[in-house]
Amino acid sequence: MDTVSITKSAAGLQKRGENLRALVQRLTEDLAMRELLRQLAETPRLEENSTTNGSSRTNPEKLVGHICGGSLISASWILTAKHCFDSQLDPSLTQDPSRLTVRVGEYNLHKPEEFQVDHEVEKIFIYPSTENSYDNQYGVLDDIALLKLKRPVTFNKNVQPACLPYPGEQFKAGTVCTVAGWGATEEGLSLLSFLGSQKKLSGTKLSPILRHINVPLISLDDCRDIFAPLTLWNPKFQIHTSFICAGNSESMDACQYDSGGPMMCKSGVDGQYIVVGIISFGIKCASGYPGIYTRVTSFLDWIHDTTSL
Question: How far is CA 252 from the centre of its chain?
Answer without folding.
Answer: 16
